[in-house]
Design goal:
- This protein is about 65% helix and about 5% strand.
- The protein has about 725 residues and is mainly alpha-helical.
- The strands form two sheets. Strands 2-5-1-6 form a four-stranded antiparallel beta sheet. A two-stranded antiparallel ribbon has the order 3-4.
- The longest helix has about 35 residues.
- The N and C termini lie far apart (about 75 Å).
Length: about 725
Amino acid sequence: MDFNSFLTSLGTSFVIFVVLMFLFTWLSRRPGNHLVYYPNRILRGMDPYEGLRASRNPFAWIREALVSTEADVIRMSGVDSAVYFVFLTTVLGILVLAGLVLLPLLLPVAATARGVIKANNSTSEGSFDDLDKLSMGHVEQKSPRLWAFVIATYWVSFVTYYLLWKAYKHVSDLRAAALMSPDVKNEQFAVVVRDIPPAPEGQTIKEQVDSYFKAIYPDTFYRSMVVTDNKQVNKIYEELEGYRKKLARAEAIYAESKGTGNPEGTRPTTKTGFLGLIGEKVDAIEYYDEKIKELIPKLVAEQKVTLKDRQQPAAIIFLNNRVTAAAASQSLHDTMVDTWTVLDASEPRQLLWTNLPINFYTRRIRQYVIYFIVFLTIFFYMIPIGFISALTTLDNLKKLLPFLKPVVDQKTIKTVLEAYLPQLALIIFLALLPKFLLFLSKAEGIASESHAQRAASGKYFYFSVLNVFIGVTVGNTLFTTLKRIEKDPNSLVPLLAESIPGSATFFLTFVALKFFVGYGLELSRIVPLIIFHLKKKYLCKTEAELKEAWAPGDLGYATRIPADMLILTIVLCYSVIAPLIIPFGIIYYGLGWVVLRNQVLKVYVPSYESYGKIWPHIYVRIMASLILYQATMLGYFSAKEFIYTPVLIPLLVLSFIFVLVCRKKFYRFFQCTALEVASRELKETPNMQVVFRSFIPPSLSSEKADEDQFEDALSHVV
């Protein structure tokens, strides 16, 4: 990519962001769009502008985001959202402090060097001369000037250690403050029990569970809820709910048809066959009403059968003291670790009920199988990503598809394609993966949605680093270096170090495209807005359907955090080699902080709350990026034939020691609740009946206050 193509990419991306920002300002002020731009506030019963100052200034949302506090974020979107902003702030701090030293230190050193840049040392494959002269590639082999880059490598590492330590302590304090809250949190009075051994003859699983935990916790045991196989009852429940929605829709259509010209209205009709498309034509309201009346007794009967005959070797235990519950979740209850496994309960909405009965050894086997599948996924994805990176260069496209040559040789088209084609191909390719990784994570037997999201996030991060960063870096020179690797397999490691500078402008453009276009689309919410209005006009007839149409969803940690981590990995690894990438990283995280602050306060609604459990996973990924950066610099200094390269080895050792120290000091509190935190006084005595009922799955929940039908699986105090 030449300098003009780079400026075209950067300039058009900036223009797109500005256009989208002004579009957001205009659209968000229209009352008909408030459901798309302020759903978080509306769901909380707040006016869209409550507490905000109305202004015609198109940048007013930026001021509102900047003046908001961490307490505002926690109040509107929970602790997990606040922890995500700790991550953004920490990374932004790392890059700002790195830039303050690296830019004034390294740019003059590189620019005044007299080295001749080889093709494989160019930051842009030999065509971006101005950038080459400001990079480490411009410094000659064995030059004493390389000491400046050694100092810079140490500076970035120590800044990262310091800010991560502060962040870990801060997040620990946030988690403690949330967990010691005087407000009653239902999950703090429950524990999950897995790996229940077979019940003795003459006892049900419920009776076995009750007797076991009453003996251990005689004063605080309240009752138990045995997990059941709900496949059949869920099917009936979903069918019933489907007919209720259809009935509400039919009634709304009928009410809408009553007008001045037709006061009696027109009763809607439907067909009794597949999807209402075939079969006998009947009155829709009467038909749905009859179906509901048929399904209700069927559901009640199936609930009784499920609770009595489909009990599983897992249960929820309710204790009337949260200190006891916290102690139980971190205690060994049996002499064998594969029976009576007790862990802290997640929020009821988080529990993956079908995973709870999976036994200890099956979970272990599944975990190893899933890891192997993920390994294969990463390995086999690396091949197409490498080829995509190589194929989407214009020279290779012209070789492979000669008929395109007259088109791509036109100056305007060539400039646009060079600016966007490889980056867009990569972004689209990556969009296909996250759901598959989340499915694999849940298949491991994980007990909660938040844990599954964290596991999927980790898999996606390592996939992104191995395939995007390493794959694209090597892929840029794939066609020219394949023969070299074939002749000398040992050249693979130095090849990576030599290939890194050649990918600098690709990643500069990739980062710019992500923050300008990506955050512009995030802020403007054009796609959700169009979908909402189409659904509202043509599909929605009831309030429930309308609410589903504008439901904003959550922040999407499983994909958002790995995407942010990929940018961090790229910027860290190039921070010393091509320091000009640092300002782009700062803009990415700074702009992301402002845009997402607005979205968290006004748009996104969290689907769960884990009280910061995601932070240790974020921390480990940041450290993985730092270690990769240090290893990359070690390899690149070796490629530069710098005889003092071994002075960087202590950095790798320090990083592993730092990870170990942080794990020993902080991690345990993120696995379970500290008793000192749980012992804080509540402002009211918890209503254990309410706590208990909050965990009953919707398909088993009784519409009546009487719970006698749950006697078989939901125990009572005796």
